[in-house]
Amino acid sequence: MAECGKNIVEDVVKQILSTLPPKTLIRFKCVSKRWYALITDPRFVAKHLSNSMHNNLSTTSVLLKRSVCKDTREAEEPEMVFSFLKFRNDIANGGEHAHEEHSYFSEVEDVEIPLKTSSESLQIVGHCDGVICLVDLTGDEVFLWNPAIQESKLLPPNPYLQGYGFYYYAVAFGYDPKSKGYKVVKIGCPCPIGRERDDNGYYIYDPYKAVLYTHMGTDSDSWREIKTCSLETQTTILWPETFQMYFKNVCYWTGQEQHKELHAYEVDYPEDQFIGKVIIFFDPVDEVFHDMLFPDCFYDGNEFFFGMSLLVWNESISLFGLQNTLSKLGVSFGIWVMDELGGPKGAWTKHIAFELTEKPLAFLNSVEILLADTEDTNGRVIFYNLSTKKLNHLPIQSVRDDYKAVVYVNSIVSVLGGNRLGRRDDSSNAESSHSKYTSSPLSHSMLEKSHSYSVWAIPPDEVSIRVKKVMEGLRAEFGGPEIEPHIPVVGSIRMAHEDVLNEFTNYLQSRVISGYKAKVSRVVFRSSYYQCVSLLVDSSFSCKNYEITQRALNCNQIFGFCNRVRPHLSLLYGYLTEEEKKKAEEKVNILDESITSMSFPITRLALYKIDYKDTTLKSWEKIAEYPLLFD
What is the rounded distance in angstroms from the CA atom of residue 626 to the CA atom of residue 233? Predict the structure, then answer.
């Protein structure tokens, strides 16, 4: 009986402590060894985090980076500071807006960063469980920082992205519920400009390199390189530009799809470099990149969009930004909500449009959003209610448009180690530390639906047999999947299955499409997975062999895709070192010394459904084929 009473008292103490602020708990660690062990226990850390998340229903904190002048003298240089904006949340009980949430600004608190670097160069990457990821733009250093307990950690330099001439780094931060560790992803984007062009005046975009740091709070924490083949197709590369958020075990960027190569005269024109905007996301568990398109209206030539951001609204992924329609005067602010995650397009619904031109910072609740007044020279923060249409200016200013904000959750998660979460779960009992991990819905949905389509030019059977002998010889030495010989005519088509099949069939049936000849120019070696070793097909007008390019242009029109990559027939998929490329070149010459003088007719076009994350090609499927007339 006494033991039972003792356990009840301990449970009550745990419950009370789990509701206290982080600063108080840090002080209470010194009370006794027993309390120290309790407060640093991973299960208690998870329980405290769960309570903090639910406490956000009554109070909300927003961490804001802004530029201020602490002195009134005009000559003083502005200083970057990090501030907590604190709001009290109430729910209306009556009237027209009953049961709606309303927030009231209560205070602002500037916070010191315990880092030996200038706040000016620090940029907020993202937030997860009370831990902020920061990157130093000048030194390319990455920090983890928990402002609630004033702990910070400088991540060690990574050895994998050194000396490759990267001109841009994309960084993301999130949590892996399977390993119970926090992960930082860093992607190096190489620049082709300034490098030597090939003989035909083309710049080649090398594939991105990505590294991942897993923070488990142990001495074994380190960087390692991860695969990026899911960031490319046969003819394009997916470029993560701006990290947006971490939500429900997934990291999200907005980015672009661009060509793997560009002619010198196309480099200075963004409309030639980029195919279109995409959303790129990363599953920290499977460590695989995925992508999907923006809403359909974003690819309408009569629509223009600015300042697009991904935010969480009503527990859904939402896209916010300014929309300018040529048929209408003025600019409006729009909100598109993702109704379904999966497939090349997902499912988007436009929910709200209102005439504001401010920059979105963060949603406080389902009806209230923080905005930055970019047209105000004082850089004021605006508090806007979507339901009442009321707009209020907060007593927060910035002398420049340098605002970056995240909704913050107080936690005692350590960035120095020793108390990683027993189990992180936003909605269930955080004490259940040994529950079986269930993968994010994203993983299953995207594995089932994430595919695109490609139109291939198929060589005659006798040519395929000849090419396959070379493929088999290369594969025997260097590995890689078995490839069906083909020349990509149009790649990375993102349409619904029925639509792409109808377009392919109807286009070919409505026209008399004649066959054409393809002439091999030379063997080329690339750093990208899907163009590792290829036969470059001559498509120049001077050799009167431009028919394959003309077919690509015709197909581009019906699929809304502009393919600027020269036609090629891949012999090997994979990654080779420079030494291995030399061996592969010798191997090709031994296997078929006259292959570079080969020419052959194209008498068939085929439509393939492709999942580029499946590097074994086992799921790649031919869904239609059409014969061409050949004189």
Answer: 23
Q: Check pLDDT > 70 for residue 1.
A: no
Per mean pLDDT, which range of 163-167, 251-255, 584-588 is the poorest?
163-167
Structure tokens at 500: 């792409």
The CB-side HSE value for 465 (13 A sphere, CA atoms) comes to 3
> 136, 143 in Cβ contact below 8 A?
yes
| Cα–Cα distance for residue pair 185/246, rounded to 1 Å | 12
Would you call 175 exposed, middle or buried from its count of C-beta atoms within 10 A (0-12, 13-18, 19+)? buried
What's the CA gap between 282 and 591, in Å, rounded? 40
* Spatial CB neighbours of 24, under 8 Å, sequence gap ≥ 6: none
Q: Report the sign of the C-alpha dihedral through residues 124, 369, 101, 105, in that order.
A: positive
The answer, yes or no, to whether residue 379 has pLDDT greater than 80, is no
Q: Cα–Cα distances in Å, from 167 out to 161, 187, 194, 289, 460?
A: 11, 11, 11, 21, 43
C-alpha span between 548 and 287 (Å, rounded) = 37
Q: Quick one: CA dihedral 428, 430, 436, 440, positive or negative?
A: positive
Whether residue 486 lies in the annotated active site:
yes
Distance of alpha carbon 209 from alpha carbon 159, whole angstroms: 12
Burial 194-205 (b: 16+ CB within 10 A, else e): eeeeeeeebbbb
- For the stretch 17-66, pLDDT in tens is 888 889 999 999 888 888 899 988 989 999 999 888 877 656 888 998 88
Q: Is the pLDDT of residue 393 over 80?
A: yes
102, 259, 290, 568: the catalytic one is 568
3-state secondary structure 35-96: HHHHHCCHHHHHHHHHHHHHHCCCEEEEEEEEEECCCCCCCCCCEEEEEEEEEEEEECCCCC
DSSP 95-158: STTTT-EEEEEEEEEEE---SSS-GGGEEEEEEETTEEEEEETTTTEEEEEETTTTEEEEPPPP
d(Cα 447, Cα 437) in Å, to the nearest integer?
A: 18
Q: From the centroid of its chain, how far is CA 168?
A: 14
CA dist 355 → 334, 341, 376, 386, 610 (Å): 9, 28, 16, 11, 41
The neighbour count for residue 256, using CB atoms within 10 Å, is: 18
What pLDDT sits at residue 429?
Answer: 36
Q: Is residue 528's pLDDT more than 60?
A: yes
Task: Give 556-596 pLDDT, tens digit per residue.
Answer: 555 655 556 788 999 999 999 999 999 999 999 999 999 99
Helix ranges, 267-408 (H): 270-273
Catalytic residue status for 568 = yes
Q: What percent of the chain has pLDDT over 70?
A: 75
To the nearest whole number, what is the mean pLDDT of the chain? 79
**For the purposes of burial, counting CB atoms within 10 Å of the CB of 114, is it exposed (0-12), middle (13-18) or buried (19 or more)?**
exposed
Q: By three-state DSSP, how is residue 589 classified?
A: helix
Taking residues 78-101, report their average pLDDT: 67
d(CA 237, CA 235): 7
Secondary structure class of 338 (helix, strand, coil): strand
Residue 443: predicted pLDDT: 44
Within 316-356, strands assigned E span 316-325, 331-340, 347-354
Q: Please report the pLDDT score of residue 549 as a whole number.
A: 52
